[in-house]
Inverse folding.
């Protein structure tokens, strides 16, 4: 499966909402977008998975990386697991392109 196929499955833009299927790696040495793994965007976070710290770090990282406010980013599914679905409201094709450009190949 090509990187573009995985990206197409991990990212979807409908009705101004960008949904991203994410796999989080908490307690990493550095925070950042790692790449695409098994139909998901893999994101490493230095925060531990305790008291919502990793969720907050994920929201902060994606908002900063994409240049959007934190209020536009929310976790729709997977609050307590490593596999999550994140939604970014007010999205357009330019934001989708920015996210694809941020993913290491």
């Amino acid at each position: 499966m090509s990187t573009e196929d995985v990206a197409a499955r991990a990212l979807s833009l409908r009705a101004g909402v960008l949904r991203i299927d994410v796999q989080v790696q908490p307690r990493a040495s550095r925070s950042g977008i790692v790449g695409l793994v098994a139909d998901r965007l893999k994101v490493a976070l230095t925060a531990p998975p305790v008291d919502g710290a990793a969720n907050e770090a994920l929201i902060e990282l994606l908002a900063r990386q994409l240049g959007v406010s934190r209020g536009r980013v929310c976790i729709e599914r997977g609050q307590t697991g490593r596999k999550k679905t994140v939604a970014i409201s007010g999205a357009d094709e330019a934001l989708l392109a920015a996210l694809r450009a941020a993913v290491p190949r």
Remarks:
- The first strand starts at residue 11 and ends at 14.
